[in-house]
Amino acid sequence: MQRGRRSPATILRQLLLVSRTPLFSDNKNCAPKKLYAANPLPLFEDENDGKTKTEWKKRRQTTADELKPPTTNTNTNQQFSMLTDTFNRHHDYLRISLTERCNLRCLYCMPEDGIDLAPKDDLLTTEEIERLVKLFAKEGGVRKVRLTGGEPTVRKDLTDIVERISRIDGIEHVAMTTNGVALKSKLDALKRNGLKSINVSLDSLVKAKFEFMTRRDGLEKVLKSIDEAIRIGIETVKVNVVVVRGQNDDELLDFVQFAKEKPVNVRFIEYMPFNGNKWETRKMVSYAEMFDTIQKKYPSIARIPDETKSEVGKNFQIDDFQGTVSFVTSMTNHFCGGCNRLRILADGNLKVCLFGNAEVSLRDAMRVDNASDDVLKAIVEGAVKRKKAKHAGMENLAFMENRSMIRIGG
């Protein structure tokens, strides 16, 4: 070994050291910090043990023993063992956050007092994103990639990213989650370059309420983007509605009517706790309550059989509807047992569970240590093998230290 070069094992240990600095700055007026640059969060934090908020803030050093994969005996697909966890869940769906920036300020996504955004240089480059997708497709069997944010349309190289990903061997589907405000003019180019489906976040069909929930104007632009996506033939158009009691729960039937008139899938999402979104149990409208309201108006509503065991939405059809309605029941009826998703955040951290606070930096492995694909593969596999069976439950999640939704991606 050449003098000065570190072994893969050394790189792994150093990448998984715990930061001694606070996760979030207490000074909201300070310049943005490199929160996850050289000191990523602990990879193997026991996030599902129901600890108190004070305990969640404690940081510890990952030991060498913890870098070893668990010894659980599982019958995994050896070809793609990199992305198969100890519960035999194979992760073939990769979600990539392209930016932390957004042109809206949604109440459930952006903390009221704002966040310190990562500097542009801390974000993954186009080339780094392409490299990681190639690795995940070749070594892990990833077949679907979803681009998220922040808001992905604020990134100038979005079309280039879509084109590069869609040409990678093994990738069968490129999707995007967007708020739709700046989408309409970009749709043609995105479709030409390989974008197959979109999820549009839309929480109110009432202008004043839309402006309250997003802290910005833009409802008409979003509606025009949805219509344009349908017109040009985007394969699947979904509308994501986060239902919050006292804010938009009175619009359930209006959104169902939206699905009657347009060939879209309207997805009602249970309100989920993330840093700074003031989540409370009483604000969450459960799937059962939403379904009961809709069934009273539309008794012909009927369940559509799941296409795969990794389906996150409970899908329904109603007689004489152009579209469909679904419910994403993350809080009251989780779907962790069939989870096939991993997340790469805008700053290059790998997050194996939406609700977990364990992360490891792939960006630093590539930039600081010039890691080979074999080293990256080992880092990813170690994280996946430590993925929990399920999240901690909504009451415990409310006290966990995690990122705000805007810094994770939809």
UniProtKB/TrEMBL annotation:
Protein name, as recorded: GTP 3',8-cyclase
Enzyme category, top tier: lyase
Molecular function terms, GO-annotated: 4 iron, 4 sulfur cluster binding; cyclic pyranopterin monophosphate synthase activity; GTP 3',8'-cyclase activity; GTP binding; metal ion binding
One GO BP annotation of this record: Mo-molybdopterin cofactor biosynthetic process
Keyword GTP-binding: yes
HAMAP family: MoaA_B
Functional pathway: Cofactor biosynthesis; molybdopterin biosynthesis
The UniProt record lists the keyword Translocase: no
Domain Radical SAM core as annotated: residue spans: 86-315
UniProt cofactor(s): [4Fe-4S] cluster
Region (Disordered): 46-78
SMART domains membership: Elp3
Cited CDD domains: Radical_SAM (cd01335), Twitch_MoaA (cd21117)
E.C. numbers: 4.1.99.22
UniProt superkingdom: Eukaryota
Entries under Pfam families matching the protein: Mob_synth_C (PF06463), Radical_SAM (PF04055)
The reaction(s) this protein catalyses: GTP + AH2 + S-adenosyl-L-methionine = (8S)-3',8-cyclo-7,8-dihydroguanosine 5'-triphosphate + 5'-deoxyadenosine + L-methionine + A + H(+)
Keywords: 4Fe-4S, GTP-binding, Iron, Iron-sulfur, Lyase, Metal-binding, Molybdenum cofactor biosynthesis, Nucleotide-binding, S-adenosyl-L-methionine
